Amino acid sequence: KVTAGLLYPRESETREVRSLDGMWKFARSETDKPSQGLREKWYLKDLEKSINITQMPVPSSYNDIVEDEKVRDHVGTVWYERKFFVPQSWKSQRVFVRFGSVHYEAYVWINGNLAVRHEFGHLPFEAEISEHLNYAKENRITVLCDNVLLQTTIPQGKVIEQDSDSGKEIVQQYSFDFFNYAGIHRSVHLYTVPQLFIKEVILNPQVTEERHGLVNYKIILSDNNVNASDYKIRVVILNKENENVAEAVADDDFTGQVLVHNAELWWPYLMNIKPGYLYTIEVHLVNEQHDVDIDVYRMKFGIRSLKWNNSSFLINDKPIYFRGFGRHEDSDIRGKGLDFALLTKDFNLLKWIGANAYRTSHYPYSEESMQFADEHGIMIIDECPSVDTENYSQKLLENHKYSIEQLIHRDINHPSVVMWSIANEPRTQQVNADQYFAEVARYTRFLDPTRPVTAAIAVNSKQDQAAQYLDIISFNRYNAWYQNTGRLDMVTSYVMNEARTWHEKHNKPVLMSEYGSDTVEGLHILPAYVWSEEFQSQQFSKHFKAFDQLRNEGFFIGEFVWNFADFKTAQTYTRVGGNKKGVFTRNRQPKAAAHLLRKRYYELASEL
Ligand code: GCB
Fold this sequence. Notes:
Oligomer: single chain
CATH class of the largest domain: Alpha Beta
Shape: globular
Strand order of the largest sheet: 25-26-27-28-29-30-31-32
Number of helices: 9
Strand content: 25-35%
Structural class: alpha+beta
Helix content: 10-25%
Number of strands: 32
Radius of gyration: 25 Å
Bound molecules: (2S,3S,4S,5R)-3,4,5-trihydroxy-6-oxo-oxane-2-carboxylic acid
C-alpha cells in the first residue's frame, strides 16, 4: 500500500535528504524462470551470489546499457541492490525511502524486510523504513522491478509465448508507439522527518478581483489524532527575492488562507516579462508550549487563475493559445532515466523555439521536469499513463482511476499543470467506452475541480463516445502521413473540417494534440516526398494555414506538433531506428522544420 504524502524530498532545518543514486548491482531472473528471484528469495542474501550479476546506473533504463539483446528485450523481473550506511543520529528521527519512479511494478526490501510494493511506472512511491534499518551499520536495499504489461495494467500490453531457435521465448507485445523501457528511472532518496511531521501541503491559490493572491492551504500531519491545541501551523510566503510578503497561522483543522497583496502572477512563457513567477510557502509545525519548530517544509508555488468555457481557455482572464509539443522522456543510452543535462537542454530548446506548452505524452514525467515547467512558464497538459486503452473491464477501470489518483496527488500544486489528460488515443468506439470514460472523467473532476479534463482522441467524432465527458477536446490526426500519404494538398481543409466537426458536435474548445511526419535528418527531396526534411516543413505549413483560419473562428485553442524529438520504439518496419517525427533529432539537433516552427511560434507570441 502506498504511503500518502508524496512531498518532494527537501532538506530543511528539521529534515535530511540523502541520495541513493549511483551504481547498483543488477541481476536478471533467467527468462524461462520469471519467478526465480522470488522463489530463491534473492532479497535475503547479497545479489553477488546470484546469476547474471552486473553493474547498473541509477537512475536509468537498463535496456540500452548492456550489449545484449536479452537485456534490452527482457520480459519479467530484474533485481537491483546496493548497500548504504545510516548514522546513529537518525535513530531519533523517522526514515523514509522514496523512489521517483520504477517501471512498471516494484517491490522494495530493506535488509530482507519487504518495505513497499508499488504499481505504475512514472509515479513516485515511498515507505517508512525506520524499523528495518541498522543504525550506525551497513544496510542493504533490494528492488525487484517487473516490466510486464497485461490487459489490466496502465498502459496495457500482452505477454505471449513464441517458438524461437533456442526454444520457447516469452515476448511482451504492446500497441503503443514508444519503447517499453524499464528500470529504476528516477532518483532514489532516503530522507528523515521528525516523529510528528508535515505529511501533505495542498494549495489552491486564487486571484481576487483586486488582483491579490489568495492562497488557500491545507496541511495534513503524519498523525491525524494530535491535539490541535498543542500544535500550530504557521505559514510564511516568500517572494523571489526571499522577502517575507505574507504570513498566517492556520485554523485548528490546519487549513487557512493567506493574502498576498498585489501578487506577481504566474504567466506562461512570452506572455509577461516575468513568466513562471514563483513564490515559496514555508510551512512551520510549531509546538505551542515551547514555541519551537518541530518540522519545516518549503515548497515553490505560483498564483494564477484558470478558467474555461465552451470556446476558450483563460489564464489570469487572458485567453490562451497553446504553442506546443507532444514529447517523450527518451534519449540515447539512458532511455527514460532522469538526466539533468538533458532536462536543461530540452527546456532551453523549448524556449529557443518559442513554445509555451507540452503534453506529457503518454505518461507522467519526472517531478524535476514539472519543477522546470513551473519555473519557465511552460504549460503542461498532464497525461496519465493510459495509452491505446481498449477492452474495457472493471479491473482496468480501477487501475486507470488509481493511476489518475496518484498523478493528481503528485502534481496538484504545480502552477504549470493546466489540464489533465485522462488518455491518449483510447479506442472510444468500443463497447463500454461510454460508461468507462464517463467514470474516469467524473473521478478526475472529483479529485481536482480546478482544472479542465481532456483526452487525445483519434477515433472520428461520429464513432467516439468519450468527448462528451471532456471539457476540452484534443484530437490527433496525421493528414498526408497515415491518411492520404504524401498528399500535401489534402491537409489544410481536412484539419479545418475535423476541428469544426468536433466543435459543432460538442460545443467545446478544441485543440490539435498531434500532427506530423517522420523525417530523416539530412534527407532532402524536391518536390517534397515523405521522410524528407522538405516534406516535414511543407506539411507543417499546410497545418499552419488551417490553424490560422481556425483561430479566427473562436473555438480553436492550440497546436501541438508530434514530436519534440525523435524517440525509440519497439522494432517494426515502419520505424527507422525509432519514431522520426521529431522536430529535433534524438540528439537534440534541429531539423529544417524546427526553424520554420520557431518563426511561427515567435510570431504567434508577438500577437499577444
Ligand atoms: C499517434 C500516437 C503516438 C505515435 C504517433 C505516430 O497517434 O499517439 O504515440 O507515436 O501517432 O507517430 O504514429
